[in-house]
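[Backbone geometry]
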Amino acid sequence: MKCDSCQEKATVFYTQVADGKLKKFVLCEACAQAKGITNPEGLLMAEELLGDAPQKTETTELAAFEPQDKCDGCGFTLENFRKVGRLGCPDCYRTFAQEINQRLPTMHKGLSHTGYIPEGLIKQQALRHELSNLTRQLETAVLEENYEEAAKIRDCIEELEKGEKAILS
């Protein structure tokens, strides 16, 4: 990717939410330093990139509006989370649990992640589970000297093993 300012190779990717709109910028290291992105104090640089951002507020004004909810681990505030949509550290998940739980249903289909398992893998796991159960039953039948039942179970195991080879192929 090329830098948005000078067309050099981009190494800094900056995303900003301003007035409810998502803005993405790609910059080279030199342009990022010039615009203050690499400087934590210079991250409020909307007027430089967007041109029509609100005026900077004084430090004393910011202190008056500082939210009470703050993460003990990183100092990230609830207001920061609401603006950025990301959290600062693992402790933030506990600190902002109520806010996260309110937002999660609108962001995702459910409140728990079950993941994705390919269909072939599900069949393979079910087959291995069934083979494990039949092997235990076979051992029990042999210990009880129930050889007719053991033979049936053995035949079942052989059929399932053929099916497993077919799935793996």
The mean pLDDT is 75. Helices lie at 29-35, 46-50, 59-64, 78-84, 91-95, 97-107, 119-143, 147-168. The radius of gyration is 30 Å.
